[in-house]
Write a structure and sequence with these properties.
- This protein is α+β, with helices and mostly antiparallel strands and 746 residues long.
- The protein is globular and about 100 Å long.
């Protein structure tokens, strides 16, 4: 009976755990499952029968059995909802169609991401033409359009007619590389296409949601206010990102500085901004109207109106909508005087969001948001309770002390308590989120506490001043429209507010860069965690919290045991890598790059003698290095500069390399200069090497695989691949099949 009373207020906690478990199961093994909807309907029928039998028997055991059956059905509902939300299973999906697509009609489904050379956006199909006939189709396509003069940026709601067939999204091409195909799949996007300006034209404007179209337009208009009044480029970019969530103009140096100090969340409109706005509105209404009749109800309405209005002016982005839903449930819970069951309130919000889109469970922002709030709700009061600075200051006050001394003690106690409360909140949020930070971002900033203690209050002030600037600009423009004579005088007011906003943003931006300069080694980077290791870390955290709550040594013992398993898995992975040797021919567009790996050390050689860009290193090479726990990665431009234990022989475009018994031939030009056969293990063709199958066979034989590296053009590979296969060669195209990997001879 005690157990039922204990769990009664947390019904949705159990339900959301069961639902999330079902969705998570589908994400791992969903492709092997049959149609689940009939099974779910059968499960609901069993619940009805079980409830009827339990009511007749009236026993606690029967009720418990029905409760367990209900959780099992919710688990099955999670599986089913994820299956139904997977568009690729439907017969009309682009991946299920037969025959080449000649044309397709699609609508732009989001604002473009502005990149240095392209615009990237998502199209949602409505129809395709296959073999001369149009038919209805669905599917998401991630497209890139070149940024050229005369090419307008894609706009949400534009309907395009596009020539050509989209290609299936590519799997990761290099070891450890971010699985962009899986990421797109979680957003129901399974195809990609680079569209040249002459391949498409706009034929209509039909936004999937007119409300969102208006919202995006409002966000662009408000962004124009910041662009007009804030003159410094970096401060303008941060103001637009902080208040409106528009991050296209933030430079890479600023992004890296915020990532290194654990303050990236400041640059994205999400739960932090919505929470700050919610807190301000709650405080202001309570101070001004707290004693008015019906305050609890009408203030909740005002809070909901403000939160959803803010979501509207920020373009109705997914992160803001998610936060708005969460805080809406918190407001409703307060109105119903159920704020004591905050865990259940959060569970209701998560349950509703997952029912709307089961794939939100795979969204990093969703995971971090709910884990951070859950950790803050549970841990922040407990951490803050360790020290009471106001009580400490009160004990040091004496009746005979001067008034100013006593006020100084009170102020000091209040200030110290405020700092400690903020510290407790920051620590609480990190406890639950740092395993995900290590798993997704492979780093942990030790300076997060110093960074957030100053940057969050300053960014909070910037948010409030930024919203004030938008409001004041709207008011002054309205008055100026009514009384044009006041226009020039009233414009001074938003300019003064803009100067204040610019200086606040400059201050916390400089502080972030200062922290980075003063603590250059406070970033733990290059951490590779597997999914099981991440689950182990979460299990250890939960068990330690259980031990602290119930003071039972068994929980701490189990936590230590799991921590030992975690450490053992790390040691075993390091041992396995230390003995591993591997040649990797990387897939990097238009480049010739190979890596010689010996355990945790590597020599990366750019065969074309050109240096790798920072982007190429970060996204193509470093993920594999992090996966291996690399301690030394050296980059070399060309063979002459390479510090590789290899034997080189070069002759008119032919380079022969011997590395740890593995013999490689890099062919760039003709093979006519080769005077004798060269027995090798791998042949790499570069820069559209001009050769014939009989020449390759005469020099290298037909046994070694032929590798087309990324410097070869697609038309060349398509032509030569078929010719070489017909001649009996084995081929590998790193552009289409991913990096070529070969173990040396033992």
């Amino acid at each position: 009976m005690k157990s039922q009373l204990k769990w009664a207020p947390l019904a949705f906690v159990r339900l959301v755990v069961a639902l999330a478990a079902g969705i998570l199961t589908y994400l791992y093994v969903g492709q092997t499952l049959p149609e689940l909807l009939p099974w779910l309907l059968g499960g609901f029928f069993l619940i009805v029968i079980g409830q009827w039998l339990a009511a007749r028997r009236g026993s606690a055991g029967a009720n418990d059995a029905v409760g367990m059956l209900s959780l099992a059905v919710v688990f099955l509902a999670g599986l089913t909802s994820a299956q139904l939300a997977t568009e690729s299973r439907r017969a009309s999906h682009l991946s299920q169609l037969h025959g080449p697509v000649e044309f397709f009609r699609a609508v732009v489904d989001e604002n473009p991401v502005v990149r240095p050379a392209t615009y990237a956006t998502t199209l949602r199909l409505s129809a395709v033409r296959v073999t001369g006939r149009w038919q209805t189709a669905i599917g998401g396509i991630r497209v890139s359009v070149p940024r050229e003069e005369g090419v307008a940026a894609p706009r949400y709601g534009e309907v395009w007619l596009v020539r050509g067939q989209p290609a299936p999204a590519k799997a990761p091409l290099n070891p450890g590389e971010f699985d962009y195909r899986r990421y797109l799949g979680y957003h129901q996007i399974y195809h990609q296409q680079f569209i040249h300006p002459d391949q498409y034209r706009q034929i209509d404007f039909l936004p999937p949601s007119y409300l969102r179209a208006v919202s995006l337009r409002v966000a662009q208009v408000l962004d124009g206010v910041f662009r007009r009044y804030i003159t410094a480029k970096r401060e303008y970019a941060l103001a637009s990102a902080l208040v409106l969530g528009l991050k296209d103009d933030i430079d890479s140096e600023t992004k890296q500085a915020y990532a290194n100090t654990g303050t990236t969340h400041i640059m994205a409109v999400s739960g932090l901004q919505v929470g700050l706005l919610f807190g301000l509105i709650t405080w202001a209404l309570r101070r001004l109207f707290g004693g008015t009749p019906g305050f609890r109800y009408w203030s909740a309405g005002v809070g909901l109106l403000v939160i959803w209005s803010y979501a509207f002016i920020t373009g109705c982005s997914a992160s803001v909508l998610r936060a708005a839903v969460m805080f809406s449930f918190i407001i409703v819970a307060r109105v119903s005087e159920r704020q004591s069951t905050m865990y259940n309130t959060l569970a209701v919000a998560a349950f509703v969001l997952l029912c709307y889109d089961p794939y939100l469970l795979a969204d990093v922002g969703f995971q971090l948001s709910f884990l951070a709030v859950l950790s803050i709700v549970y841990l922040q009061p407990r951490i803050a309770g360790w020290i009471d600075f106001q009580e400490w200051a009160a004990r040091r006050q004496r009746p005979w002390q001067p008034y100013l001394v006593r006020r100084l003690w009170q102020t000091s106690g209040w200030a110290a308590d405020w700092i400690w409360q903020a510290t407790a909140l920051t620590l609480a949020a990190q406890v639950a989120t740092f395993p995900l930070g290590l798993y997704y971002f492979h780093q942990f900033p030790l300076s997060f506490l110093l960074s957030n203690l100053v940057a969050v209050p300053l960014s909070s002030g910037a948010l409030y001043v930024g919203l004030g600037l938008l409001a004041i600009t709207g008011i002054t423009h309205g008055v100026s429209a009514l009384v044009p004579a006041f226009a020039s005088g009233l414009d001074v007011v938003p300019r003064v507010v803009a100067v204040l906003l610019e200086n606040i943003i400059w201050a916390f931006n400089e502080y972030i860069f200062w922290i980075g300069r003063q603590m250059p080694h406070a970033l733990i980077s290059g951490v590779q965690l597997t999914a099981p290791q991440t689950w182990l870390l979460f299990a250890v955290i939960i068990l330690v919290l259980l031990f602290l709550a119930v003071k039972r040594l068994a929980w701490l013992s189990l936590a230590c045991a799991l921590l030992g398993v975690f450490a053992g898995s790390r040691v075993w992975a390091a041992h396995r890598i230390s003995t591993d040797e591997e040649l990797i021919i990387y897939s990097i567009p238009r480049r010739s790059v190979c890596g010689f790996w010996q355990g945790a050390s590597a020599d990366i050689v750019t065969v074309d003698s050109l240096p790798l860009s920072e982007t190429e290193r970060t996204y193509r090479i470093m993920p594999g290095a992090i996966q291996r726990g690399a301690r030394r990665v050296s980059y070399h431009r060309g063979w002459q500069a390479a510090n590789v234990p290899a034997t080189l022989q070069a002759d008119d475009g032919l380079v022969l390399v011997v590395w740890r018994g593995l013999r490689l031939a890099f062919v760039t030009g003709h093979l006519s200069s080769a005077r004798q056969p060269w027995p090798v293990d791998v042949v790499v063709l570069r820069q559209n090497a001009r050769m014939r199958p009989d020449e390759l066979a005469a020099v290298f034989g037909k046994k070694p695989p032929i590798v087309f590296d990324s410097s070869c053009r697609s038309w060349y590979v398509a032509r030569q691949d078929s010719v070489l296969r017909e001649a009996g060669f084995r081929t590998h195209d790193v552009t289409a099949q991913g990096a070529f990997r070969q173990q040396p001879r033992q």
